[in-house]
Each structure stands twice: as C-alpha cells, then as structure tokens.
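Aim 2 progress update. The chain analyzed this quarter is reproduced below.
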Amino acid sequence: MEFLDGRVFWDQRLPGLAQAERRAMFDSMNAVIAALHSVDHIAVGLDGFGRPGNYMARQVARWSRQYQASETEPQPAMDNLIEWLPRHLPPEGEPHIVHGDYRMDNLVFHKTEPKVIGVLDWELSTIGDPLADFAYHVMSWRVTPELFRGLAGIDFVDLGIPREEEYVATYCQRTGRGPIANWDFYIVYSLFRLAAILQGIAKRAIDGTAASDEAVELGRLARPIGEEAWTLARSLAP
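Predicted structure tokens:
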C-alpha cells in the first residue's frame, strides 16, 4: 500500500466547498466506479477472484443469514424482505470487479483538486454484478443525511450535486449501458444489505464487542433502513 496525501470526506454535502468543486468531485467519483466496472477482470488475471454465477442469489442468501444471526428483536420488514428478494431476482448480467463498499468516505481526493486519487477498503471486493455495486453506492441518494450520511432531501441545484437520475445516466454512458432495468430492485437489495450490516453492529454492541457510542447509534439505524427498503419493495409492480 502507498501513502496518499489527500482528503477524505464523511459528509457528502461537502460543506465549505464551492458549487463547481462539488460537481467535479461527484463526477470524478462516478468516473472511477465506471472505470472499475469496465476492467476486463480475466485479461488482468482476476478470473479466479470470485465465484462465477448466481451472484445476486448468493448475496441475498448471505446477508439474510447475517441478519438472522444478529437479530436482536423482531423486525417484520426484514423478514418480509428475506422472502421477497429471492422471488424478484433480476436476470444475471455480465460479471465484473465489484468493490463492495464504494462510497465517498472510502475515497481519497486530491489535496487541492476535485478528483479521486485512491479507493480504500477492498475487503468486500470480488467478481459479481456491477449494478449491485453501483446501486449500493447510489443508495445514499435515497437516505437522508441524518439517517445514514445520505443525500435525500438536499437542495441539489444549490449545492451543485447531481440528482440520482443524472448520476445514474452518466454512469450508464461511461459504461456503455442503456437504461437499467430493475434499478429499484437493486436499491431495495442495497438498503436491505445495509440494514443487515447495521444489525450486525447492533448485535456486537449488545454483546459488548463493539462498545462505542457510535456502534450503538449505528445499530439503531437497522430498523428504519430495513423499513425503507420494504416500503420501496411494496411499491414496485409485481
């Protein structure tokens, strides 16, 4: 690993920065994940980096087990999603490298320029569905800053931050995709996955293996995020 002398941002609203700089930083963030998903993983020697086939089915099963193993109180929304997700899996697309946790606070930006110079935290990376990876990144447009460092409800025009539709369209253009079918399914899955991760934190906080105040607060977010996922799932056409 090399040292990167740059900036890391936890608040995606990027307070204190100019509107043009915010827009350029979001564009760079978009360009980097599009570039990652455009890499020919076989050509670069990563054909054995992940298991081929049934990626989404395996992911849904994995995070369902993770949630159930760490459940601390009944959450009907999560139980419903565990039944709903396997029945609505989209057709499997071409596999690519996926980061697994691509979000702004896992990026290093240049010290003075509005561009990404490094991507951190690759422990969940594998070969899988790039749309699931991208949706987990874009999920933050669906949650509020107060709920989980999201962007929902902000003044996009005033801040110079692209709306979800624009950001997704830019990614599709960069990766040579048409409009993404089943996009909201991927958002439902992403919210469910995040809720399962947060429930794991909640369980560790109760067990005393993650005793920080931050862990307790993060754990409490599992329920509202799971409920948001189920609300979205119920709104989709059968």
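The radius of gyration is 18 Å. The first strand starts at residue 6 and ends at 7. These observations will guide the mutagenesis experiments scheduled for the next reporting period.
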